[in-house]
Amino acid sequence: MYSYWGIKFPSWMIKPSVLPNLVRIVIGHCRRCECFEIFGPLPFLKDLELHDSTALKKINVWNWRRQCQVQGGDASSSIFPSLKKLFLRDMPNLEEWCGAGDNEDAIDGVDMGVPLFPLLSSLEISNCPKLETIPPHPTVEKMELYHCSGQQLQSTLLMKTRCRTVDMTTTTTTSSQEDFKGFPLPAEKKAMQGLISLRTLTIKECSNLTSLSQLQGLQYLTALEELQIEECPDFCSLEGIQALTAPKELTIESLPKLQQLPQDLENLQSLRDLRISHCPFNNVEGLGTLPSLQSLEINDVPDLVSLPQSLGNLKSLQHLQIYYIPNLESLPEETRQLTRLRDLRIYGCPHLEERCSRETGEDWPKISHVPCVEMW
């Protein structure tokens, strides 16, 4: 339904069993509507999307449950028992989801804590900066929050969930989250305890996040396999990453104040893939403590002038990419020890390319055992 100009939805839509067989609902561009009344139950609904309704302030499930109670129905049942995907996009004035409290909430004797979406697996909330409370979603596996409030993110993380993916981009804050400003993850350890199944965490464009040590409770992310930190202008330290024990992939990209890796990365015993791009690193000494690393990419790091001797400790390394590091002059002698290295690519490194020239370069004996060497 698009471009409905009423302030409220028509009364017939709220009546139970009017549209019982709906599988997908998309409501958008309802520029005057201020309240979305849940119409239900809709036992077969799988996808629900609300977007571009700039006047919308409230999503209300109370009236439906009260109506069920008055009519003798089961007000504690799930409204959307089959819903798997929920998208809320571009609703800058949306403030509340009435009936989205915790399990102890009860309104007029009706339990409001019963999960509205017992099968929900994918949740996306984008450009809803005033929304602070959303329904419990214990089954969610993928969650994407863009341009949302810190309070909303806090309440989301405090819920127990099977979430495997969290993507947070340019999150804004409420007055209660001034300490984190652009990055409103709560500092309490319990905020991470509900993410025990989280596999992928992307932190991007979060201003004033300076260090992972700000995020207490990282040790609870025992299933985390992939961590990406990108385009955070004030991020200057990876201290705190030692609390993670399971990540297999780490991407560090476009962090203009991050100058080096921590020296003690021994806890990252499972790390297989490391990508460093567009960072002002002056050294990468911590690499030698990653014995399980299989793939290493260093891209556009202009201040880097040498690779550490500890590079030879990377006994599992199979792929090495060195791109656009103009001041890198040579490879360490310990490169000979990378006996499992199968693929070496060097692009945009004029000094290194000359020294690694096939047969004639001074560093060629260090890499002659590598089956595939590409340079330009």
TrEMBL record:
Record's protein name: Disease resistance RPP13-like protein 1
Domain Disease resistance R13L4/SHOC-2-like LRR, chain residue ranges per copy: 198-355
A Pfam family matched in the record: LRR_R13L1-DRL21
UniProt keyword terms in alphabetical order: Leucine-rich repeat, Repeat
Matching InterPro entries: LRR_dom_sf (IPR032675), LRR_R13L1-DRL21 (IPR056789), LRR_R13L4/SHOC2-like (IPR055414)
SUPFAM superfamilies in alphabetical order: L domain-like
Domain R13L1/DRL21-like LRR repeat region: 3-51
Keyword Hydrolase: no
